[in-house]
Write a structure and sequence with these properties.
Chain A is mainly alpha-helical. In chain A, about 80% of the residues lie in helices and about 10% in strands. By secondary structure, chain B is an alpha+beta fold. Classes of the chains: A mainly alpha, B alpha+beta.
């Protein structure tokens, strides 16, 4: 199984752009999930304060 | 292990739990995050869900601890619950968030969580480290991979697909790379 990939300078721009795109995609997904779960998270924090 | 709540959202699933350290953890599974990067990798595309997790602190955060085994066990149980509910041929795809430069810490913690779990034997994890040499003195690391049930029928296909992805990444300037 391949466990490591090493990319050198001439290829780094495209590879970095790929991972940057993934990071942005994940940030957007996190925002959406946070919005959709806001009510449950609030309830959980209140419950924990009372316990 | 901490009690958790599972919430089904429009296009994803979220699991939430709180800890005595005044933290609320959110673990989510989303089929769309990597979908358009996976067109050439049918096993990972067909049954793959992107994994994300993070925590928010509320109130006064209790004294910090370096490793909360309860969090590790709970996240692993959540991953197991998700795989059980979606079927044994499901893949969970991960990429350690790197926008703040802390991806190596995340990867190390994730491995520690995975290795400490009692469910370990029931699951299979295949990870890939990507080292990008930006210049002679500057490197950036990324950690990606997948988790599945040890008896997933398409596990071998997924291993091959991750290898194909590795080769495509090495040949990133030759085209056919999904970026």
């Amino acid at each position: 199984m391949i466990k490591k990939v090493v990319i050198y300078a001439e290829n780094s721009i495209k590879a970095l752009a790929f991972f940057d795109k993934i990071n942005k995609r994940k940030e957007e997904a996190k925002k959406k999930i946070d919005e959709k779960t806001a009510r449950v998270r609030e309830l959980l924090s209140k419950k924990s304060d009372n316990s | 292990m901490y009690n958790y709540i599972k919430e089904e959202l429009e296009d994803s699933y979220a699991y939430l739990f709180s800890t005595p350290l005044n933290r609320i953890y959110t673990v989510s599974f989303d089929a769309s995050i990597y979908a358009d990067f996976l067109e050439s990798y049918p096993s990972l595309l067909k049954e793959g869900y992107g994994l994300s997790f993070h925590f928010d602190s509320y109130g006064i955060e209790a004294t910090k601890v370096t490793f909360d085994k309860g969090v590790a066990v709970t996240i692993h149980e959540i991953i197991n619950d998700f795989l059980e509910s979606k079927g044994k041929d499901t893949f969970i795809l991960y990429h350690c968030q790197s926008s703040d430069g802390r991806q190596a810490v995340r990867a190390s913690l994730f491995n520690k969580w995975f290795n400490k779990s009692t469910l370990n034997g029931d699951m299979f994890k295949n990870g890939l480290e990507v080292e990008i040499n930006i210049s002679e003195h500057e490197k950036e690391y990324h950690y990606i991979g997948f988790i599945c049930k040890a008896n997933n029928r398409y596990k071998e296909n997924a291993i091959i697909e991750l290898e194909q992805f590795s080769v495509a990444l090495v040949n990133v300037n030759k085209g056919n790379f999904p970026a």
